[in-house]
Design goal:
Blueprint: H1 8-15, H2 20-33, H3 37-40, H4 49-55, E1 63-66, H5 71-80, E2 89-92, H6 97-101, E3 109-112, H7 115-124, E4 127-131, H8 138-142, E5 148-150, H9 158-163
Parallel strand pairs: 1-2, 3-4, 4-5
């Protein structure tokens, strides 16, 4: 349901939980656990992504702009995934990613897996590539009108996109 951007409160309502106190307890626990190491270990890098980024370093200088709350766990996870030397910068953004993307120097392309990334690109007048390997499905991503849609970062033809 979250791939379709279904509001968490609607999901909870459908589950039959009506008690506001129980809902608040659930939401607090969810917020505290979403970046817990015991769940972060299940995240993986999609095959080919790191190689694609490194092979295209003449076309792009990758920066990670992510909405996270726990900086220590983010850096731990970056290390665990072997991504320490992949990104020039790592920027922790709030919900409105536009203001964080606008701080990236020489920004020419935004690759993202949510409407927040694509909307930021559109607002800033930057070319965007939506990838379908993240939390949102194709129908939701298309609503934000990305410049391009790809299955994952590994399938992006950076030279073709950057020449347009």
């Amino acid at each position: 349901m979250r791939r379709k951007r279904t509001n968490i409160h609607l999901i909870l309502a459908r589950s039959g939980i009506a008690d506001k106190e129980r809902i608040n307890i659930f939401l607090q626990q969810r917020a505290s656990l979403i970046e817990d190491v015991k769940y972060l270990v299940f995240d993986t890098v999609i095959p080919g992504v790191v190689n694609t980024i490194k092979l295209n370093s003449s076309w792009v200088t990758p920066c990670l702009v992510t909405t996270r709350h726990d900086v220590k766990r983010l850096h731990w996870q970056i290390g665990e995934l072997g991504l320490n030397n992949v990104f020039r910068d790592i920027i922790i953004a709030g919900k409105d990613k536009t203001k964080y993307y606008s701080k990236v120097s020489n920004l020419k392309l935004i690759v993202g897996d949510t409407e927040n990334d694509i909307d930021a690109a559109n607002t800033l007048g930057i070319t965007s590539v939506a990838v379908l390997s993240g939390i949102r499905d194709a129908d939701i991503i298309r609503l934000s009108c990305p410049g391009f849609i790809e299955e994952s970062v590994a399938s992006i033809d950076f030279p073709r996109i950057m020449k347009q």
